[in-house]
Amino acid sequence: MSRRVTQEPRGKMLGIFKGMGITIKHVFRRAVTFQYPDEKRNDIPERFRGELKLRRMMGVNDEERVETTKMPPCMATCPSNMKIREYVGLISEGKYTDAVVVMKEDNPLVLICGRVCPHPCESNCRRGDKDEPVAINNLKRFAADYDLKMQRAGKIKIKPPKKKKDDRVAVVGAGPAGLSCAFYLAKAGYQVTIFEKLPVAGGMLMVGIPEYRLPRDILQAEIDQVLALGVELKLNTAITGLDNLFKQGFKAVFLGVGAHKPIKMGIEGEDLEGVVAGETFLADVALKNKFKIGKKVAIIGGGNTAIDCSRVSLREKAKNVYILYRRSRQEMPAHEVEIADAIDEGVDIQYLVSPTKIIGRDGKVVGIECVRNELGEKDARGRRRPVPVPGSEFVIEVDMVMSAISRVPEVDWLNKTNVEIHTKRGTIVADRITGETSMPGVFAAGDVSLGADIAIAAI
Ligand SMILES: Cc1cc2nc3c(=O)[nH]c(=O)nc-3n(C[C@H](O)[C@H](O)[C@H](O)COP(=O)(O)OP(=O)(O)OC[C@H]3O[C@@H](n4cnc5c(N)ncnc54)[C@H](O)[C@@H]3O)c2cc1C
Ligand code: SF4
Hints:
This protein has 459 residues and is an alpha/beta fold. The protein has 20 helices and 16 strands.
């Protein structure tokens, strides 16, 4: 009897917690857990903690976002919610440097975005209903270039804030997420140190996006603007644990380590000489590492990485460059203008084709066997599935194969910490609003928590 009396309240509490989807490890977590029980719902992937709140704040699609936030459609569509009307208005009045000040309230990398952002904002510009959308990104680029000219002429100077806080923050990764985090923290007076494992800063902007799309002096100028705020940058410094950073006196750690591990194709012959990951090839070119380009190159994938690999291959003197994409041009995720440019430059894009086997001789690639597809039922994301056509196999003679399917974060080193990793996607589970991870004092954003995305989403 007495056992029943003492056990009942505990059992009841456990029942309530269980019903709310809270387990003991969640009870001691802060902010992220406020959203957590809600987000145990099956229709919302676990990695989108904070997503429900974000959805309530922002709506689930473009129309709802405009309605819920009362933001202009362009601003609601920009992942950084840049104050587009305000800065475009200032540009129209000739106040270019003032426009840049407004832009930098939400995006410190305007020279970069002005060149590489796929400008989703423009597809929701109301002016587009009448004739053409406002050229938001070109206007941004123009004002940012003008501002840089003024800086180079010594007419604008960036200075660190006068009031410094005692708190030090470690930023891991010098990609757009890390640079952006460092910029706003430094402006708020925090002492920021960025740790970057590569010999260069910029992340995928530097070692992924080719130079012909993003000139390195422009990229470096914007990195220098962040450093001019007093941010310390330690290159060639890979972080392999978090305890050491806290022991060094950092009060918080931001993880902006991106998604750099290429996904394998999972077909026979992938270990042959001449098969490389597209990201590795682009990084080798960017870092001027030694590499060998084939004469006939097949690139697997349909995104921007595939297009960049194809156009860089041509610039590196490959004779024939093929892109093999499993769906049709309509479904191709690469930007339309990039696809058109690649075709103009001579890239042979073969649609509705999947590789089945890489053929080798003496350990080296000599060809790739493919099968033709037709489009079948829609998948969970609403895209029609490629279905192989039996008997349609064919071979293309190539001496190099690049996989450019997708990439995931390299976060094995976090397994020994309390930072939770999404088991299926391999991304860090972080609150979509605050960036908080499951480990107090550790925050994450950018590709490492979103999966491979675009720069402005990381910013
Ligand atoms: C080929 C290619 C083309 C692209 N084209 C476009 C485009 O046209 N427009 C666009 O908007 N986006 C584009 N993107 C996507 C965009 O570059 C990324 O979304 C963006 O760079 C992600 O930013 P991030 O800061 O999260 O990660 P990253 O840019 O990947 O930066 C992460 C940084 O962390 C460092 N790092 C990783 N682990 C550690 C560690 N343990 N210790 C220290 N440092 C570490 C990495 O070396 C890297 O420098 C492209 C990507 C690729 C690969
Ligand atoms: S960053 Fe990209 S999405 Fe945002 S306003 Fe600029 S062009 Fe548009």
